[in-house]
Structure formats: structure tokens, C-alpha cells
Design brief:
With 320 residues, the chain is of the alpha+beta class. It contains 8 helices and 16 strands. InterPro entries: MalM.
Length: 320
């Protein structure tokens, strides 16, 4: 079996058939969320397409820095930044995240308090403020309270910034359609009865109304899992359309345009970047993940690495 592995991988490499980008699968998690007033189908239709903004509007926003391995609580109220553009209504949150520390896992919670909740949508932008990924409100699902948590809407974003960037951006907002909906919670007495195996009482579940304000928690950490969404470009080609996550099919909108004078340029690969890819290729092949190693090689050569291919072939020969 090992004797067949090396020629097969080298053949695929030489034929250059490796896909440039792999996209994360859409959300299929089962949850307790029930949207009333308007059906979930209506919300998906209303929020199916990522919004477009002028570059000047995005540049005027105050982007709050947040580091990897950091957790922040954000209170959205009348004093917060506001964005009333098209269907977007009320307070927003805008964050700048590090793009030079590898892949990121971001857990966003919108806390339910006094039967009210802010229903978030998230637009992810690259360093040039090009839309790259879009998480509509129905991606953020109702979660029951736990020992250390309260009722909330929760979603996990897994992002891989393209190398050469220093920052990527998250814009969190709610829409007119979200404000016409509400979220059905689980009554604490029911949850307790289910937890201890008692008969579940026949009592109505409370309803959380969607509002223009609320409380968010944002937890950011580095992660190495596959299946992330690539944020940013590795070539100076026209910006790709944003990938919609959690929809029944991928729906995109035109990316915001920027003047040619400020278009991103590809810089020569840095020594640290080259070493990062070579080490990652070695780890992937050592663990038997040849597909991941090929994708890393493809990305490294896009960035101009002169040694990634040699590292790949050498590791395969050693493994064989």
C-alpha cells in the first residue's frame, strides 16, 4: 500500500489538480430554536444575501481590537455604534481580529435576558474590507442554559486568514426581518424535569422577543481543525464573493468595490511564512493526512515559497 502512495500523490501534484479553496459545510446542527411571528423560512429568505456597503461607510466604523485567546462581553445599547442601512437596524458591533496567528475559532453568544435577545448576523471582511463570509441570523441557534451559561443564541465561526494580512474584521448587526421574529425558549421547570428523568410538566415555554439592543460574548481562540473558511486573497485578482454559511445553498452578493490605487498586492513570501508552511506540511504527512499536505503545498506555492515542494516530496519519500 505504501509503495502505491508515493506515485499517486506525486501524480496528483504534477497534474496540478488540487482545488484552490475548500469551503466549510453548511450548518446541519439540530437545535431547540423555534422562530415565531415570522417563520424561519421567511427569515432565511430575508437574510439570504450578504449586505453590501460602500468602502467609505466601512472605513468610518470604529473597529474594536480583540486578541486571540480572549473573551469579551459587549453591551449593545443606544450609545453603541448604529447602522441603519437598508434592512439593517439598531446597534452594531465591529471587531478587528488578528490575521497573522493562524486559524481562528470564534464563539459568538447573544444572551437572552428578561425575555429579550439580539438576533445577530455576522459579515466577515478581509484586511482590505472585502466581504469574505456571511453568517445569517438563523445560523445562531438557541441553546438551553447550563451550569455556567444562560439561555442564548450561539454560533461558531471557523476562519483561516490568508497569509500576508494583519487583521480581518467582523461586523455584527440585526435586521428588520429579525426584529419581527422571536425565539422560543425552554421553560426551566421542563429542562430540570428532563435532566433528572421526571415527567415533563405541561406548561408553555417562554418566548424571547428580538430587539435592537442586547448583550454579546465573543470568545476567540486559535485552532487547527480543517474545514475553515478562507478569509482574504493570495492573488491580486478581483475579490471573490462572500461565502454564505448555514444556508440551504450558497448565496452570494457582490463584494464592495475599492479604488485600484489601494488594491492589495502580493508580497514575497517571508521566511517565517515559508517555515510555517514547511512545518505544517511535515506534520500533515507525518500524521498521514496527505490531502491536507497537498493543500498546504498549493497555498505555499501561491505565496511564492521556493522550498515547499521540496519539503513535500522529501517527506513522502521518507514516509514511503
Amino acid at each position: 500500500m505504501k509503495t502505491k502512495l508515493l506515485p499517486l500523490c506525486l501524480s496528483a501534484l504534477l497534474c496540478n489538480i488540487i482545488p484552490a479553496v475548500s469551503y466549510a459545510a453548511s450548518d446541519t446542527a439540530v437545535s431547540d430554536a423555534v422562530i415565531t411571528n415570522k417563520t424561519e423560512s421567511d427569515i432565511k429568505t430575508s437574510n439570504a444575501i450578504a449586505p453590501t456597503f460602500s468602502m467609505s461607510a466601512l472605513q468610518k466604523l470604529q473597529w474594536q481590537p480583540i486578541n486571540a485567546h480572549d473573551t469579551q462581553t459587549i453591551i449593545l445599547n443606544d450609545a453603541s455604534q448604529q447602522l441603519n442601512d437598508g434592512d439593517i437596524r439598531g446597534a452594531i458591533a465591529a471587531f478587528a481580529l488578528p490575521a497573522n496567528q493562524g486559524s481562528l475559532e470564534i464563539i459568538l453568544n447573544s444572551l437572552i435576558k428578561d425575555k429579550q435577545v439580539y438576533s445577530p448576523n455576522v459579515l466577515v471582511l478581509d484586511e482590505q474590507l472585502h466581504p469574505a463570509a456571511f453568517y445569517p441570523s438563523h445560523y445562531f441557534r438557541y441553546q438551553r442554559p447550563g451550569i455556567m451559561s444562560v439561555d442564548r443564541l450561539e454560533g461558531v465561526l471557523k476562519l483561516t486568514p490568508a497569509l500576508g494580512q494583519q487583521r480581518i474584521y467582523l461586523l455584527i448587526y440585526t435586521t428588520r426581518a429579525d426584529l419581527q421574529a422571536s425565539t422560543q425558549m425552554v421553560d426551566p421547570a421542563k429542562a430540570y424535569a428532563q435532566g433528572i428523568g421526571n415527567a415533563v410538566p405541561n406548561i408553555p415555554d417562554p418566548i424571547a422577543r428580538h430587539t435592537e439592543t442586547g448583550a454579546l460574548t465573543l470568545k476567540v481562540k486559535s485552532e487547527r481543525d480543517t474545514g475553515n473558511i478562507l478569509i482574504g486573497q493570495v492573488f491580486s485578482t478581483p475579490a471573490p464573493k462572500p461565502v454564505t454559511i448555514g444556508a440551504t445553498q450558497v448565496t452570494t452578493a457582490p463584494a464592495a468595490s475599492i479604488p485600484q490605487s489601494v488594491a492589495p498586492t502580493v508580497k514575497p513570501v517571508l521566511n517565517d511564512t515559508e517555515q510555517y508552511f514547511n512545518d505544517a506540511i511535515k506534520r500533515a504527512i507525518s500524521s498521514g493526512d496527505i490531502d491536507k499536505a497537498l493543500k498546504l503545498l498549493n497555498e505555499a506555492e501561491r505565496l511564492g515559497s521556493p522550498t515547499a515542494r521540496k519539503t513535500f516530496i522529501k517527506m513522502l519519500k521518507n514516509k514511503g
